[in-house]
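User: Sequence in, structure out. Go.
Assistant: Echoing your sequence, followed by the structure tokens.
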Amino acid sequence: MIKHIRSVTAVVALSCAALTVPAVAHGTPSEGISAVTYADVEIPADLLPFIPEGIHAVAKQITIAPGGTTGWHYHDGPVVGIVQAGTLSHPGPDCKPVIFNTGALINEPAGDNNVHQGQNLGKVPVILDVVYLEPLGKPLFEDAPAPHCAAK
């Protein structure tokens, strides 16, 4: 448990240092995903001078079962994380997967031009510790249709 708390703390610190920001709609379905929320906090507008519009920060541990997928989506704010176990395949809008192995840091930029999906093509669960830094009032992710280059 202490290892997870340290990981989440490190990701939160990295997120705040980077100040890069996440959101839901209809698109491709997720499959084999479970999550545990560690922290969920809103920083109101104008409370901190370096976050004048406020922010909703959520720390989660996400598990993707073998063969599982997040479905295609994007975030309204940046998401940062670390792969605690397994290997994450992470194709973006060009459908070319980026591979994140255990210990790798993940930085997902905000915006609908950064559509992506997380996939577990391996035989063991992928476990991610992530922090969403989203604008106030936005969901953690926005569902999106698969890009034209994605195989059906």
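User: And one key feature?
Assistant: The first strand starts at residue 31 and ends at 43.
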